[in-house]
Every structure is written in C-alpha cells, then in structure tokens.
Write a structure and sequence with these properties.
The protein contains 18 helices and 4 strands. With 362 residues, it is α+β, with helices and mostly antiparallel strands. A 4-stranded mixed beta sheet has the order 1-3-2-4, with helices on both faces. The two termini are 41 Å apart.
C-alpha cells in the first residue's frame, strides 16, 4: 500500500528524546553515567540506553531521578509524555495512505463549509485535514466510515446514486456538533410537544431571521435540541432525529434543500410526527425519497396539524380556492400562512403549479 510522504508538523530530527535532557543535566553537574547508575540503583547500561534515546523514562525511573538529581518526577514524566505524543503525531502523519486522502474528494463541499465555521484550519494540507477530520468524526480512519451502521432508511437507499456515505456521515456529525451546546430539558416531553403545536404554527408568521431562534426556544422546553442545518450534495436528507448520549433528550435537525416555505413547514411537522409516533428509538434519518407506512403515517399527521382534514374537504368542495380572498380567509381559519394552503392545493393537483415563495436563508 502506497504511503503519503509529507512535511507537516515536527521534523523527526527536532523531536527531542528526554534522554538528551538527562545528558545535559549530567554534563552541567559533572556527573558520570556510572555515578547516576549508582545513585538511582539502575545499571550503567540502562542509563546509557536512555541517554541514547533507545529507551524511555518510566515512572519508576523518573522517581529515582528525583532522588538522584533533585528534579521532580513530574518533570521527567512530562518530557517523556511530550516525546511520545510528538512521535505518535509524526508517525500518524507519515502513515496516512493515498486511499484515505482520497476521502477528502468526497468531502470538498463539507470541508469548505466547515472552514467557514472555524472548525477546520484553511491552511491545513491534505494530511493535516485527515487528522482534523478523524477528530471531528471520532474515528481513527476515514475509510471506515461506510462500515458504520446507518438507519434502515439509509440501507434502503443504497441504490440511490445521489447518496454518498461520507457526506451523509459528515452531515449527521455536523448536526450533533451544532446542537451540542443548546440547553434543553433533560427529557423529551411528548405531551408538552403536542401542546406546543399551535405555538409552533404561529412561528411561520414571524420574520425569517427569527424562525430559527423561536423554534429552538420552543423545542428546548420539550427536551429537543433543534437546528436548521445546511444540506450538501450526496446527503438527500430532510431530517435527522437522535437521542442524545446523556439523559433522554433529542436532537432534531432539518435541511432546507429546496427553500420552499410550504415544504419547510410540512417537513417540520412531519419530523414532529415521527417523534410523537415513537419512530425515533435511537436514531432516525429521514430521506426525501423514502416512502412506506411510517412515512405515510407521519405525512398524514403533519397534514392534519397544518390543515384540518374536514375543513379542507369543505373548502375544496366550495371552490373558494378559485379566488385569492377565499384562500386568504381559509388560511386565517387554520392559523397558517396562505402559502400552506396554496402548496396543499398544488400538491393535490386542485390548482396548477406556479411560483412558490422561498426562504432566503440556508
């Protein structure tokens, strides 16, 4: 397997073994290796191998050096720790394969965005980026990402050429990182979430810039860390729900792939429906193109949250949708914006498709 050569970080010759420091101390004090061997109770050969950098300073030897030289154990152990870490970093950098480097090609868009967030160093070269991403992804080798188990929905989408396991993993990790500092109630409160539906609907009437803030505050009360997250090509995802490692709170993230206002709100209530229906035992990735009983049930509930089914049937039968005032009045009666009614009518093929309002933010 071909290895990538690089010159990032310390050069090998500049990594100082603690034996060099020990040698300098002996020279300054005019003490021979033989005398140190006597003072520490170690063999002269052991002292020599440490000074030549062929052996490290153990905790036991560090304590003996404290007695013999009056220099604290912690000093020697710290020198050894720094040396070990620098050697490890040097070896890591010089043992990254071309294959692992190639993963960066999948993540070009993600890397660019993460640099803008300050999560990655824009001056990093490829080998440094691999190490940075290993830390962000909590994985020792980027090539192992596809081996990590995703949701059933992902497995069902494997034939979809638009899905890239690396990008999807990065997007999911981004959701976790963006929500980790949101303060939420310790446990998900399903009853409170259900009671908050009217309040959540009311948020569609505030300014665009306030939507994220308002929704985050409402969901936080219910034990849910909410975030609208940028989408990337290769991860055709509309939502991500996951139980956190501590307590019983949830992460709920959404993308705004098409930016259509009606789709955003329907998708939001679709994700809420998944939570209320108990579809999120551990982790749930909601793909745009996945269908099935679980998705249909969530769709039905989301539609009912936004527009009362019986009221909608009466409205359609009345033909009031043929003029703007009829749509406006019906939207008001359902406590939603007009674009919700128009989107539903277009989706049901009752009125022809036309331009729909979009959100400017991503």
């Amino acid at each position: 397997m071909e290895m990538v050569k690089n010159s990032v970080g310390l050069s090998r010759e500049y990594i100082i073994h603690p034996g060099e420091t020990l040698s300098e101390v002996l020279e300054d004090r005019g003490m021979t290796q033989r005398e140190l061997a006597v003072r520490t109770g170690m063999t002269e050969k052991h002292i020599s191998t440490v000074i030549r950098g062929q052996k490290g300073i153990s905790a036991a030897f560090a304590k003996k050096l404290e007695y013999a030289l009056g220099i604290e154990t912690a000093f020697w152990m710290n020198l050894q720790s720094i040396y070990d870490r620098e050697i490890l970093e040097f070896e890591e950098l010089n043992n990254i394969t071309d294959k692992e480097i190639s993963v960066l090609n999948h993540l070009k868009e993600v890397i660019k965005y993460w640099i803008s967030l300050g999560w990655l160093d824009e001056k990093s070269n490829q080998t440094s980026l691999v190490l940075e991403l290993r830390k962000k992804f909590c994985i020792s080798n980027l090539l192992d990402i596809p081996k990590i188990s995703f949701s059933g929905a992902f497995r069902a989408q494997k034939k979809n050429i638009n899905i890239d396991a690396y990008v999807l993993f990065a997007w999911q990790r981004m959701c976790e990182l963006l929500t980790q500092n949101i303060n939420v109630a310790e446990q998900v409160n399903i009853g409170k979430l259900r009671s908050k539906i009217p309040e959540i609907k009311q948020v569609m009437f505030v300014s665009e810039k306030q939507i994220q803030k308002k929704l985050t505050a409402i969901f936080s009360e219910c034990g849910i860390a909410f975030q609208i997250v940028r989408n990337f090509k290769g991860a055709p995802v509309q939502g991500f729900i996951k139980r956190t490692g501590e307590g019983e709170s949830l992460i709920l993230c959404m993308t705004l792939r098409q930016k259509f206002m009606d789709i955003f709100w329907f998708t939001l209530f679709h994700e809420i429906a998944h939570i209320l229906n108990g579809d999120t035992k551990q982790e749930f990735i909601d793909f745009d193109s996945v269908s099935g009983e679980i998705e249909q049930r969530a769709d039905k509930m989301a539609g009912e949250f936004l527009i009362n089914t019986n009221d909608y049937k009466t409205f359609v039968n009345s033909k009031e949708y043929n003029h703007s005032l009829g749509i406006k009045n019906f939207a008001k009666s359902q406590n939603v914006k007009e674009f919700i009614i128009q989107g539903r009518l277009m989706n049901d093929k009752i009125i022809p498709w036309k331009a729909r309002p979009r959100y400017d933010w991503t």
